[in-house]
Write a structure and sequence with these properties.
4 helices, about 70% helix, elongated, about 80 residues
């Protein structure tokens, strides 16, 4: 009895979650900006929303690279074992 969502709805949910994550990061960053700048090790850590965008891009890259590896290296033809 699961709910079936179309792909366009899933992308909509994904974009809403991404926007909410970036907004939350920006709000937290502006609220404690003076304290946060005192504890940063790198310049890019002071950019509002950087952590959310970096995490999202990292997850997308993991998925894309994993799928590419699967298609190019791991998958075999259906009759691979019959041929050999």
């Amino acid at each position: 009895m699961g709910i079936k969502l179309e792909q366009k709805h899933l992308f909509g949910i994904l974009y809403v979650c991404l926007a909410a994550s970036i907004l939350a990061d920006v709000l937290v960053n502006f609220h404690g900006q003076a304290e946060a700048q005192a504890h940063t090790a790198f310049l890019w850590q002071t950019i509002p929303g950087f952590s959310a965008i970096y995490g999202f891009v990292g997850c997308v890259l993991i998925i894309v690279v994993s799928k590419a590896l699967g298609h190019l290296w791991l998958q075999r033809e259906e009759d691979y074992y019959e041929k050999h």
